[in-house]
Design a protein that fits this description.
With 153 residues, this protein is α/β, with parallel strands linked by helices. It has six helices and five strands, in the order βααβαβαββαα. The chain has helices at 21-24, 29-43, 55-63, 84-93, 131-143, 149-152; strands at residues 3-9, 45-51, 71-75, 97-101, 123-126. It has a five-stranded parallel β-sheet, with helices on both faces. Helix 2 (29-43) packs parallel to helix 5 and helix 3 packs parallel to helix 4. It is globular and about 40 Å long. It binds 1,3,4-trihydroxy-5-OXO-cyclohexanecarboxylic acid. 1,3,4-trihydroxy-5-OXO-cyclohexanecarboxylic acid (DQA) binds at residues 12, 75, 77-78, 80, 101-103, 105, 112.
């Protein structure tokens, strides 16, 4: 395995497939995971797929990326809009992170348009459905090992 990428999914994403399919699509989280795993193995990328409904678990999973992980794909879900703790964890760990949202958060309610966590991310993908995870994987695969000025500090 040349690179290792951690996928972290926030609250309510375990309900994908049945949760508001008009907004989030009809694929389950497990189905998305399988598609991403297939793409990762083709790239010879090692990966872990994690979901939690609890903020502290997400913070600790980000901490666990400190060593041995090259990048993070994170859908913080509702915590994007509220969590200083997730933002601080990303800042502390300083791994290149891509924030993914299935829906286009900018075309939804006002409170979803701002993401606190996005400022600690290298890139944000919003509105591409499950394909966002795939493009995030490909992006991190391409840039991992190449540090931005922020990550070098
Ligand atoms: C989401 C968008 C968030 O606003 C929402 O709270 C989610 C999912 C998305 O993937 O589109 O749970 O992150």
């Amino acid at each position: 395995m040349t690179k290792r990428i951690m996928f972290i999914n926030g609250p309510n994403l375990n309900l994908l497939g049945t949760r508001e399919p008009d907004v989030y699509g009809d694929m389950s989280l497990e189905h998305i995971e399988n598609e991403v795993r297939r793409a990762a193995s083709q790239l010879d990328v090692g990966m872990e797929w994690f979901q939690s409904n609890h903020e502290g678990d997400i913070v600790e999973k980000i901490h666990s990326c400190w060593e041995d992980w090259d990048g993070i794909v994170l859908n913080p879900a509702a915590f994007s809009h509220t969590s200083v703790a997730v933002l601080d964890a990303l800042r502390a760990v300083k791994k290149p992170c891509v924030e993914v949202h299935l829906s286009n958060i900018h075309a939804r309610e006002e409170f979803r348009r701002a993401s606190l966590t996005a400022s600690a991310c290298r890139a944000v993908i919003s509105g591409m459905g499950w394909l966002g995870y795939l493009y995030a994987l490909k992006f991190l695969y391409a840039i991992c090992g190449v540090k931005s000025e922020k990550e070098k500090q």
